[in-house]
Amino acid sequence: MFAEGCARDSSAGHRPEELPENAGAQNEREDNEDGKLAEVYVASRESIPVWYPRGQSPAILENGIAIVPEKPVPAIGNDGNSDCAGRDYEAFLRFIRKAARTLADRGFNNVQLRDSGDFVWDTEASFAFSQGFRTLNKKQRLEFTPRVSADEEFQTLLKIVKWVRDTIDLPGNILNPDFYMKELLLLRDLAGGRFSVRKISGEELASKGYEGIVTVGKGSSNPPCLYVLDYAPSGNDAPVFASLVGKGITFDTGGYSLKPSSYMKSMHSDMGGSATVAGALALLAATGFPGRVKAYLACAENMISGSAMRIGDIIHYRNGVSAVVDNTDAEGRLVLADALIAAGEDGGYILDAATLTGAAKTALGREYHAVLALEDSMAETFLKAARETHEYAWRLPLEEFHLDLVKSGLADITNSVNDEPGATTAAAFLARFVKDPAKWAHIDLSASYQKTPASGYGLGARGHGIRSIARFVKDLWQIR
Asked: What integer is the mean pLDDT of 35-54?
């Protein structure tokens, strides 16, 4: 998406700037909310004064704040070309993000990135810095170099990723299924109004047979709904190339399979899949993707009341599949099923994304998203897209024989299976609602939310996955 650029090769440019001999280490500065910018640049160890512990980063010097990688950065050659792929560059981007997090934690709220003799900021490194720098509930100001700031595609990405992170971080008393419309209209504006937003709710939702969404949402005073985003650059008569399906549980108590309070603290983020696929569609629209793409956001609150779903309830879906509710806290797959049926009616490729299982987080932690697919090429295409966008994804197993794991004696399938791989059984449940499994991929969003600051991210939504999904759709278009 961005013009690549890595470190400046010393043979192709000037030597690292000379730092003053009398430069003295400064104490960590207090919050710089007075408007004064802290200038941040990347330096080599050799350019740091001998009196400052080399390798310590960030180094707070009189001429700015130097962040000092342990390893040399991949360099731009004399021909202007660069190779910013591979583990070394990934490690460098992680280092940049962590350095930004460190500065934010130390109270540097106003920061300006500047080039140095060792490194010219490119869009990828600037994006990594912005991701680590973000802090909830703080006023922050981050200025990029003039060249990066002038990149319109980069600025669009920043705005869309910010929308995704801010929306996921909205508390449950603000973001409910109905209020979501206001946020989606803001996203549409960020994409230049290039896609439409439609809400299906109330009697229409029930009459069209969206029984999973209705069942999960009936326990809340905030009614459930299905949002349909439609990006059709060639008109509404064009075939749908790809559909993106997202779980939009705006708050999840677990229902009668009640979560402990400590688990419930972050459950305003259980709509992260819907925000992620909406952001990916907006990114495709804003960058002029030539194919038609739709997004289905299945939205509900999973609450407890006299009308809430019970264990043992049976849902009859409009594709003929029946499902028994053996755990009310496995509600995400119940709403996704409806959206997958709708997406299948459009034809084309389908990708669904959801904060679906704790099992995926147990397997992969909060660095990697889990990828599950019945068709190898679909999983491999997504993994490639993640690498291309410097994001992290890992495949978990899903085979035809796994589909038998969710069979039930009370209905066709169950939404919960004990003592079996949770991420795989969740995907096996979803597979029963996919019209063409060979053109479907499921992403369990293990890395979408950070409960505590770590890995170069602050508390809250990470925005991880938006670029992977958008690139995945673009790569499918290229190989169609």
From this structure: 83
Q: Are residues 196 and 143 located together in one domain of the fold?
A: no
Mean pLDDT (the chain) is: 90
Residues making up the chain, counted from first to last: 480
Same domain, residue pair 442 and 461: yes
Is there a domain that residue 142 lies in?
A: yes
Q: What is the pLDDT of residue 5?
A: 42
Q: List Cβ neighbours of 268 (8 Å cut-off, separation of 6 or more).
A: 168, 169, 170, 171, 172, 175, 250, 251
346, 295 Cβ separation under 8 angstroms: no
Structural contact between residues 249 and 275, judged by C-beta atoms closer than 8 angstroms? no
CATH, residue 468 = 3.40.630.10
What pLDDT, on a 0 to 100 scale, did the predictor assign at position 87?
Answer: 78
- Whether residue 259 lies in the annotated active site: yes
Beta bridge partner(s), residue 350? 243, 440
Taking the C-alpha atoms of residue 256 and residue 265, their distance in angstroms, rounded to an integer, is: 17
**314 and 366 fall within a common domain:** yes
Q: Both 261 and 397 in a single domain? A: yes
Who contacts 380 (Cβ-Cβ below 8 Å, separation ≥6)?
Answer: none
> Into how many domains does the chain fold?
2
For 191-221, the pLDDT digits (tens) are: 999 999 999 999 999 999 999 999 999 999 9
The token duo for 284 is 């495709």
Which of the listed residues 96, 123, 150 is the one where a domain comes to its end?
150
231, 293 in Cβ contact below 8 A?
yes
Q: Give a yes or no: residue 410 inside a domain.
A: yes
Catalytic residue among 259, 318, 384, 387: 259
Amino acid at position 478, single letter: Q
Question: What is the residue whose two structure tokens read 């809250």?
Answer: 460
Look at residue 2 and tell me if it is in a domain: no
Domain boundary among 130, 150, 170: 150
The one catalytic residue among 101, 188, 247, 333: 333
Q: Is the pLDDT of residue 24 over 90?
A: no
Same-domain status, 165 and 117: no
Across 114-219, the runs of DSSP E, i.e. the strands, are 141-143, 196-201
- Domain extent at residue 325: 158-479
Asked whether residue 250 falls in the same domain as residue 336, the answer is yes
Residue 284's DSSP bridge partners are none
Whether 95 and 127 share a structural domain: yes
User: 278, 297 in Cβ contact below 8 A?
Assistant: yes
Beta bridge partner(s), residue 143: 112
366 is catalytic: no
Structure confidence by residue, pLDDT tens digits, 286-313: 999 999 999 999 999 999 999 999 999 9
Which 3 state secondary structure label does DSSP give 253?
coil
Buried b (16+ CB within 10 A) or exposed e, 90-107: eebbbbbbbbbbbbbebe
Confidence of residue 369 (pLDDT cuts 50, 70, 90): very high
The radius of gyration computed from the CA coordinates of the chain, to the nearest angstrom, equals 24
